[in-house]
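Hey, can you fold this one?
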Amino acid sequence: MSAALHELLIFMFLPGQGFGENTAFFLLQGIFCFGQIYLQRVTGFGKTWGKGVFGTLVGWSTTIGILVWMSPLFVGPYARSGVFVDDFAIPLPPALLQFIRTII
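Sure. Predicted structure:
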């Protein structure tokens, strides 16, 4: 449902910015959630072992790493349109803005 809403927003307000990137983001999120459940069942990580600080650090690090890796799929259409940078005049240093535009 969220993917459809985001794709509709891109279609309506940011024409020409591609189609399907937000859907891919949310689809991969679901796949990774099922993958996490599967790995926990197979290995027992977080259930029978890997609890406490170590398990928390591994879990958070993995989640953040995956989200950073997948973020261009979600943010890409919005960033390429320039609507957030140009229209709202976000106070960021020019070097940082150039870096963000290069990545996305």
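DSSP finds five helices and no strands in the chain. Let me know if you want another pass with a different chain boundary.
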